[in-house]
Amino acid sequence: MVVPYKHEPFTDFLVDENKRAFEDGLKIVQSYLNQDYSLIIGRNRVATKDKIISINPANKEEVIGTVSKATKAHAEEAMQIADKTFKSWRKSKPEMRADILFRAAAIVRRRKHEFSALLVKEAGKPWNEADADTAEAIDFMEYYGRQMLKLKDGIPVESRQIEYNRFHYIPLGVGIVISPWNFAFAIMAGMTSAAFVAGNTVLLKPASTTPVIAAKFIEVLEEAGLPAGVVNYLPGSGSEVGDYLVDHPRTRFISFTGSRDVGVRIYERAAKVHDGQIWLKRVIAEMGGKDTIVVDSSADLDLAAKSIVASAFGFSGQKCSACSRAVVLEDVYGEVLDKVVELTKGLTVGDPKNRSNFMGPVIDQAAYEKIVSYIEIGKEEGNLVAGGKADNSKGFFIEPTIFSDVDEHARIMKEEIFGPVVAFCKARDFDHAIEIANNTEYGLTGAVLTNNRDHIEKAREDFHVGNLYFNRGCTGAIVGYQPFGGFNMSGTDSKAGGPDYLILHMQAKTTSEML
Ligand SMILES: NC(=O)c1ccc[n+]([C@@H]2O[C@H](COP(=O)([O-])OP(=O)(O)OC[C@H]3O[C@@H](n4cnc5c(N)ncnc54)[C@H](O)[C@@H]3O)[C@@H](O)[C@H]2O)c1
Ligand SMILES: N[C@@H](CCC=O)C(=O)O
Q1: What's the gap between Cα 276 and its chain centre?
Q2: Looking at 129, 142, 320, 425, which residue is catalytic?
Q3: Ligand 1 atom closest to 265 (CA)
Q4: Which of 186, 344, 464, 480 has the smallest number of Cβ neighbours within 10 A?
């Protein structure tokens, strides 16, 4: 009997023992920096000449690892293996597949701080953010394993006396999992786990900035007993390997998390039926956000300020759920802004290997340039009241930045920046605040700070986001507690870590036997 699911607790780093354990994790990771990682295609480790070099975004000189880079030929070989493996894997017992996930979760839990330390180095995550990423990876494995056990016998349907009807779920086939770098462990592991525990085989293309954590995850799956060929590891260029696999006629589904533009491209390409293709591909896409915290006149303003700061600047604002817009009712606007500026001035930015730094770097040069260009746009569109400086001499560091008095239609109020930049906008009244909150093409997360019950109910009905929070920040959904995913251009309305997520990786079959 499997014990009921509970989310993995976060580590309290004020406890000396935990702090030391994390420092040990950093030492372990340091001992295996700069190793070479091969592609994994079926049973074969395939080393290529062309490499992806994963670097530490806080220290560009430090190489985390070199990773073989798949070509289209490797993608084709992996597709054939995955397709062949599907023939046996689809018949494997769901209990066995779930057990592999439970074992994998246990292995990661035992090496938790090592995995988090790797995220500090490879993704530039501060300790607490890295700890939460690893905890979420564990949660996804534990949760999806249990969901599979719930779904394995299907759902009861009615039968007449002359017949026996059954309704159960069967897997889809080969799935392409394309994951982002920002939850380099949790999202990559969650998408992969959901796909294979449902009985599919997988070609995993991790983000090119964080391929090493994905390689380590595959090692864990192997140790947990996952047969060769079920999950194949194929780092490579999105436009080359990604397009090839998305277009492939044997691809049955694509599970993608990343930016709006790449998501739309995949969605469009997947809609085309290629020669030899005998199904319509399914696309599960989780995309960007432009997330808003609304502060009502009745709110606890200290709580509001803390929530904005944590949601805007945690992990340097590089969360799809990050608060990049604070919409504040005019009578409390000045007070909230002052409090947020004050808290922000106390934040430290630096190498996340030192626990004292609240914020680390942004992920790479391209992200750095994009964010800096939005800071320049912000200077035209609002008043710079905190931060604004950036330094990429050693790593990609950008100060937490606040713009005040930004018009509701300004670009920094509409476009995803994906960095530590928040725009403040004044609302006339609560209805106006919700109108502003809904005025982007996204619909991922949002929060409302209020003590007005009518306003809570209005927001519940009219604030059109997949994850809406009251009297807290807008980041930090927990698997199984706050299923996560957005509306409109934030994706295909799926909910990762929710009770209906696994079904997206399966198809329902009805059988009816005459008695
Ligand atoms: N909704 C969510 O749950 C969620 C979660 C995390 C991140 N995100 C979003 O992800 C973005 C940040 O992540 P990112 O920078 O890694 O996104 P990205 O779109 O640049 O890349 C995501 C993945 O797609 C791959 N890719 C790139 N071009 C491709 C192509 N033509 N075909 C197939 N694959 C291709 C990349 O290599 C990477 O593995 C932000 O927009 C953020 O909001 C959304
Ligand atoms: N699930 C995470 C965000 C994932 C996207 O980056 C959160 O709720 O903050």
Answers
A1: 33
A2: 320
A3: 31
A4: 464
Q: How far apart are alpha carbons 60 and 361 in whole angstroms?
A: 11
The ligand that comes nearest to the alpha carbon of residue 241 is 1
Taking residue 501's Cβ as centre, other Cβ atoms within 10 Å add up to: 24
Please identify which of the residues 77, 129, 136, 286 carries the catalytic annotation.
286
Strand partners, 349: 359
Distance CA 380, CA 403 (A): 10
For ligand 2, whether the C-beta of 476 sits within 6 Å is yes
- Interface ipTM above 0.95: yes
For residue range 437-494, what is the model confidence (pLDDT) as tens digits? Answer: 999 999 999 999 999 999 999 999 999 999 999 999 999 999 999 999 999 999 999 9
**What structural domains does the chain harbor?**
19-287+493-514 (3.40.605.10), 291-478 (3.40.309.10)
Vertex 81: Cα angle to 75 and 86 (nearest 5): 120
- Mean pLDDT for 206-225 is 98
Structure tokens at 400: 């937490």
- Per residue in 219-254, pLDDT tens? 999 999 999 999 999 999 998 999 999 999 999 999
- Enclosing H/E stretch for 79: helix 72-89
Beta-bridge mates of residue 171: 506
